[in-house]
Here is the input.
Amino acid sequence: MPHTLTPETAARFAALTLGHVTREYPNKPDHTLAGPEDARTPAALHPVFYGSFDWHSCVHGYWLLARVLRRFPEGPQAGAIRSLFDRQLTPEKVAGECAYLAAPTARGFKRPYGWAWALKLADELGRLPDPRWARALAPMAEIVAQRFREFLPLSPYPVRVGTHFNTAFGLRMAADYADGTGDAGLTDLLRATALRWYGADADCPAWGEPSGDDFLSSALIEAEALRRLMPADEFSPWFDRFLPRLAERRPDTLFRPATVTDRSDGKIAHLDGLNLSRAWCLRALAGALPANDARVPVLRETAQAHLDAALPHLADDYMGEHWLASFALLALEA
Here is the structure.
């Protein structure tokens, strides 16, 4: 598969995603029951985002479809994407999602990973020529943005794991929404939090990577978050301190694609996502460096190796099929 987003690749990703965003089962709900009345089906709980095995994967499946529609508005899946959005992204159905989030038991629902993707979706919908879908989702996006505003000042420490709880990923994705909506206050909060959590970090060993169910590199997603949130002249010296031996391919664990031994195991299948998310971060970081920087070819070659390891396996099993294409799209567009 080419390492750029071609119309053919985008159509394949969209077809895969259209096949699961309205597939209700199997489903892994992240749902707290306060009483017997809360024992409901996924579609009853979530009128929009009930598919794709879990809520957050469904949300970023919609993001992928919105992104493909914007990039290739006449592509072979464009009509199906518009039809899906017309059916699902309605004020009435989004109101059902908002009602779920309003429950006291949902205060921490999908924090920060699902929050991040919800804002990323809202940002992408806002860039489409048809404003109806962005307007419909706007109330839910504002709820999520407010949760970031309330949560970040309360959180003294980052979460550095390679899974859904990673806070650098949340900051990175929320930044696109904040900038896209012109919310300077949210942008400032995201930047200040990133500096408070990560600004003093130096000589990252990446010794814990990868663990057995990572789909994010805690080292590289931190660097990508700071790249996105810091001015270039401030990011450059921070990055030099954070990973000072990249030109020597150190820490060496960052340069070896993860081995995936069983793609029918949902946790082990995360490692395909790790390879894709590493490629995304590596390519984005390479793009932030001067063209003659010795680290650029190292980062790009490593990204290619990670893409080679993961791209052939996006649909090997539903444990990866329901989510991997979104990270493949991030990597190919970086």
Summary: The chain has 15 helices and no strands.
